[in-house]
Amino acid sequence: xxxxxxxxxxxxxxxxxxxxxxxxxxxxxxxxxxxxxxxxxxxxxxxxxxxxxxxxxxxxxxxxxxxxxxxxxxxxxxxxxxxxxxxxxxxxxxxxxxxxxxxxxxxxxxxxxxxxxxxxxxxxxxxxxxxxxxxxxxxxxxxxxxxxxxxxxxxxxxxxxxxxxxxxxxxxxxxxxxxxxxxxxxxxxxxxxxxxxxxxxxxxxxxxxxxxxxxxxxxxxxxxxxxxxxxxxxxxxxxxxxxxxxxxxxxxxxxxxxxxxxxxxxxxxxxxxxxxxxxxxxxxxxxxxxxxxxxxxxxxxxxxxxxxxxxxxxxxxxxxxxxxxxxxxxxxxxxxxxxxxxxxxxxxxxxxxxxxxxxxxxxxxxxxxxxxxxxxxxxxxxxxxxxxxxxxxxxxxxxxxxxxxxxxxxxxxxxxxxxxxxxxxxxxxxxxxxxxxxxxxxxxxxxxxxxxxxxxxxxxxxxxxxxxxxxxxxxxxxxxxxxxxxxxxxxxxxxxxxxxxxxxxxxxxxxxxxxxxxxxxxxxxxxxxxxxxxxxxxxxxxxxxxxxxxxxxxxxxxxxxxxxxxxxxxxxxxxxxxxxxxxxxxxxxxxxxxxxxxxxxxxxxxxxxxxxxxxxxxxxxxxxxxxxxxxxxxxxxxxxxxxxxxxxxxxxxxxxxxxxxxxxxxxxxxxxxxxxxxxxxxxxxxxxxxxxxxxxxxxxxxxxxxxxxxxxxxxxxxxxxxxxxxxxxxx
Amino acid sequence: xxxxxxxxxxxxxxxxxxxxxxxxxxxxxxxxxxxxxxxxxxxxxxxxxxxxxxxxxxxxxxxxxxxxxxxxxxxxxxxxxxxxxxxxxxxxxxxxxxxxxxxxxxxxxxxxxxxxxxxxxxxxxxxxxxxxxxxxxxxxxxxxxxxxxxxxxxxxxxxxxxxxxxxxxxxxxxxx
Lengths: 731, 176
What we know:
CATH class of the largest domain in chain A: Mainly Alpha
Distance between the termini of chain B: 48 Å
Number of strands of chain A: 19
Low-confidence stretches of chain B: none
Strand order of the largest sheet of chain B: 1-2-3-4-5
Mean pLDDT of chain B: 88
Radius of gyration of chain A: 37 Å
Oligomer: heterodimer
Distance between the termini of chain A: 80 Å
Number of domains of chain A: 3
Structural class of chain A: alpha+beta
Number of helices of chain B: 4
Number of strands of chain B: 11
Strand content of chain B: 35-45%
Strand order of the largest sheet of chain A: 13-16-17-10-18-19
Largest sheet of chain B: 5 strands, antiparallel
Radius of gyration of chain B: 20 Å
Strand content of chain A: 15-25%
Largest interface: A-B, 42 and 36 residues
Number of helices of chain A: 21
Low-confidence stretches of chain A: none
Shape of chain A: elongated
Structural class of chain B: alpha+beta
Largest sheet of chain A: 6 strands, mixed
């Protein structure tokens, strides 16, 4: 028996995990689809009687169903982890059932790492196995390169400042042992009087302090200047990349995710480089220097310094973990309270209409109280634990102080007897190590955060454009659009368009009608090349869309959608957006065609009226007309109107329709409308149903056919009639 | 069917009479339904309120286009073997292993990586944005918590307060 295709599944009928397989097998009697559990074959169906394989997505699981002449047969169940491969299997199987040959191109490339075969982190192109945490730094290092000398200088300055930290206790020791202690020789500087020597030593310490502070300030200045420039460069790079990547790639990321990367992640990395690297340098230098000092002078003291280290380490990590968790929760609670507030304010109309003000106040009160309670608890914990921690950290110094004092008194267990000055120097040095210790314990975490941010930024920076732009720059002159056997779906298991063929001649105006969800807008998304077809092709003037250069395509196509997006700024700039070199006269003409010239002139600031946040609010119809003006100004070869006049009253719509009549004259126009009267000037109507073209032809011909279009027209006629009879008593 | 359409227009529920409705398994592994003289060769069942009322408001639909044939208001009055058939069919629509302990939950590269013990054995999964995907299932009723991983698999913690302390600490931050 020849074995053609295998697909694994992971749930039994009863809902327990299993390792099952579906196999398409070929034998002398024909082809069979067989289902195997771990025990053996449980189902065998001849593919001859099979019509289709269907995938159903349920809650947390899915199942496959085979439609056969004898009725539906449940093939297998699987968890959501298997959804993507399963939908590929279904596609391949259905291709096999309709075309009687296997489809050798299961499209899983976007899901699995080409190097190791492991699955990418969902929604990203990061392979969890291959991505070394720091490999993300490569692209970032490229951006960071020009700033490295600056950071290096800052680092060196900090180093210098720290040398002063080390010098001060040494000078202090000389002061104490040389002049202040009992029986001090008081002759360190030859002929200098003791008072003069004290002046000199104290002055030296003062100068050291001053220099240390001054250098630190200077280093911070350099660091900050460099850091901001670095963040700016990084944001610029990421933002530029986001504009470059095609829409399918962009669609893989959420808007919030992208914004986060531009702002949050780049900030975090710059922060890390600015602050942490300096800290690492500082701490490491101090640590090494102090250790060397002790090793050379009193190796035994090292033991006392390191003895409390494990305790301090454990205490600080514990403490930080606890604090972090508590404050994280507080952050989540506060963002929830904010969300509630945001929701209520945005939905104030709904709240008032339903009279639920009290309830909303109660809800907000509760969220706020939860937050306040937790905040109080956290503050309390902080105020108790923080001193406790500091005490633990300081406890090591007491140990040192005790044995040091013993050594001063002559009961030394740490080698030679000590002088008071040496003791004080020792304690100061120990303090220099202990203080940054809690910071050291946080290091792994902040390193981890920075590495994650780096990986995420790197993902964008190394993003290869998925919808590769072609090189054809020949301008589109005719505007003939053809769909050849096009199949497409937003998710792989649910095709929206199925084997669609359609020809729109140059200069023709076609209207697309159909029920919601029939695939009308999807057709337009494909023509605009917001997505690429799954199979088949779309051509304009005989050239595949994928071969066109991005600019050529966008120059040739203009679109107006029902959901119009206007940028914040003057109306004039919004219209001009389509064609920045247009003269004011051209803008006014476009506005006239779109019937918005007059209402704009009625505004006190005319075309300079700002719209958007803190500006003038336009109604839905007004916004739509501005958007139409924008498309008109662009004067494209192909015009796409997706419910472009849906928010307008019928009179204004008729007026715009007339104006568009001139506009659509020698250009290809594709219009979608639910209100069928919108399409009365169309050369041809295309009725789309369930991803396929049900009928097409001129309005009159389709009416004669009495098919789906006829039904739609009749249904709308009835509603208009109803509206008219309701209106007439008032007239 | 005409009567059915009329009911829909009037906003009435078409409740199935437990006395006249019978479900029979089909050879393909699905259910067929007879209601009086009407026979439906394959029906799809689903719960209207899967988390609030799992044993009530069971919808019987056309598997092709989802039109509703009727609703079973409550399973209780049905005969035991009918109940068993319906429960079995419904169980195929919901898959949510029960978490008994959380071994580890760590943020890694922007995802929370979980290792848990469930009633179906140990499982590991990745979760995006834990503050959205760890949540009380029915906060007004009980302490069930649902975890949703990045593939869309769900995991149930039957009582978050009954989890051992180590396990609970790992997700406590998000249980607000």
